[in-house]
Amino acid sequence: MKIDEKVISYFESSNTPVDKQGYLYKKGEIKTSYQKRWFVLKGNLLFYKEKPADRDLIGVIVLEGCTVQLCESDEQFAFSLVWNEPGLRTYKFAAEDQESLEDWIKTLLSANHQYLALLLSDMERAYREALEGPSNEPTKTNPFIMPYFPISEAGRASTFPSLRSSSSQPTFASSSSGAGHSLGPGFRVGPMADPVLQPSAAISAKPTLRKSPKLWSKKATNAVNTQPSSTFFGDFAGVILEPEDEFVKMHEEFGKEIKKLISHWATRGPDGQENLIDFS
Amino acid sequence: MRFNEKELISLSRQPSEKAAELGMRGPKKGDVLKKRLVKLVVNFLFYFRTDEEEPIGALLLEQCRVEREDSLTFSIIFLDEAERKYQFECDSEEQCGEWIDSIIKASYEFMRKNLIFYRTEIHKLTGKDPLEQYGISDETRFQVSNGLQLKARETSSL
Questions:
Q1: Quick check: B98 and A7 CB within 8 A?
Q2: Where in the numbering of this chain does the PH domain appear (chain B) (predicted)?
Q3: What's the confidence (pLDDT) of residue B48?
Q4: Which of A146, A194, A220, B39 could in theory staple to A190 by disulfide, Cβ–Cβ 3.0 to 4.6 A?
Q5: B69–A contact, CB cutoff 8 A
């Protein structure tokens, strides 16, 4: 499969926010020794090169579908990016110290697109609620029927431009009428109807999950129907997410995972080695 | 440039709301319109030959502009020096509009900016930082002071 390298390189060099950067040791793909590389995280892309000032990238890792795990290794401060499907790889890394290790793990765990999508959907809802004022109680009884939103123009940020649209415009995420998503009065709006959310394999694999039928409409012609492979969430596969609680739940799961990692580190002795034998 | 190809191919197989057969024309002069199964997954646009399992290619939908060319056609223009342009022909005006919408909204950078916008606005309206409840107020990626403007100051030309 081809990838448009120019686009990728350009994105890395462009003046877009860097979420994290620093040196990490990466286990070689051909040679098995660890090599020191400069990593730059932007969004769900982890770029790497030899040195910070280098213009040429050695490579990029797309952080979708993987979990971040501590790994048992001769190397200290080791962690890995794991794709759980057969035939897919594991990238092994080692950080320079404990602090760097923890920070990289935490950051990489939340770098995927879905995390941001869910958080954004939450924020959209919170924004709508804030616009309506404190007197309005959002109905929580049936989470799958969103409160009726009469769409008034007042107070709305600019509608979505349908012609010249830069990907960098922070407009309110409602579509203009030209896009076929006209939001007239009486139109039910909810996070699952929002095209920003991409259904994850985790959700699609569980048909018992109640969802707005809109999400699974056959509007998309020639949709490639394949067996949902192992989940995006990997270790969090057991979490069935409901729209309104999705981000909160996922965030809690991340928190638990991090607490687990922290307590695991706590059992290790000061020299980083686990004290398996009590020598006292 | 190395990249995790197998994992990306696996990503291309994830279910997507946006998958359709469109006419696609590449960025090079003289490239002709070809029928492709185009699929949007996260911030990548994969394109397949119809009935093939493995995509021919993947486009990262960051640092690009999406433009309507005419009622049925839209293009994705990358903001590099060459301003490489990929064109897509749809079956209907409605479909065209929906694709434009979806592609713009799929960009990570676009989503991030929207999030920062909402964060700021909610704070203005309620006096509270909505990210505090998640304990992520301090995360680098959501900072307002990141040099990002809340208004759409960034233009396509850099």
A1: no
A2: 15-108
A3: 97
A4: A146
A5: no
Give which of A41, A104, A109, A168 to mutate to test B binding, by max B Cβ within 10 Å. A168
**What integer pLDDT is reported at residue A267 of this predicted model?**
64
How many residues are listed for chain A in this entry? 280
Interface contact B67-A163, CB threshold 8 A: yes
Selected residue of A7, A14, A248 to mutate for chain B interface (largest B Cβ count, 10 A): A7
Q: CATH number of the domain at B100, please.
A: 2.30.29.30
User: Considering only CA atoms, which of B88, B39, B42 is closest in space to residue A221?
Assistant: B39
Contact across the interface for A120 and B1, Cβ inside 8 Å: no
- What values do phi and psi take at A83, rounded to 5? -100, 120
Q: Which of residues 75-114 of B touch A (CB under 8 A)?
A: 78-80, 82, 84, 94-95, 97-98, 100-102, 104-114
Structural domain contains residue B132: no
Q: Which domain holds residue B67?
A: 5-110
User: Are the beta carbons of A200 and A232 closer than 8 angstroms?
Assistant: yes
ipTM of predicted complex: 0.89
- Residue B122 inside a domain? The answer is no
Write the pLDDT tens digit of every residue in B115-126: 999 999 999 999
A106: exposed, middle or buried (Cβ count in 10 Å: 0-12, 13-18, 19+): middle
Residue ranges of chain A whose pLDDT lies below 50: 141-243, 269, 272, 274-275
- At residue A20, what is the residue type? K
- Per the structure, how many domains does chain B have? 1
User: What six digits make up the tokens of A227?
Assistant: 């067996």
The answer, yes or no, to whether residue B63 has pLDDT greater than 60, is yes
Among B7, B55, B59, the residue with its CB nearest the CB of A62 is: B7
**What is this structure's pTM?**
0.69
* Structural domain includes residue B128: no
Q: Which of A107, A117, A105, A141 is nearest to A199 (CA)?
A: A117
Judged by DSSP in three states, A188 sits in coil
Which of the 8 DSSP states describes residue B126?
Answer: H
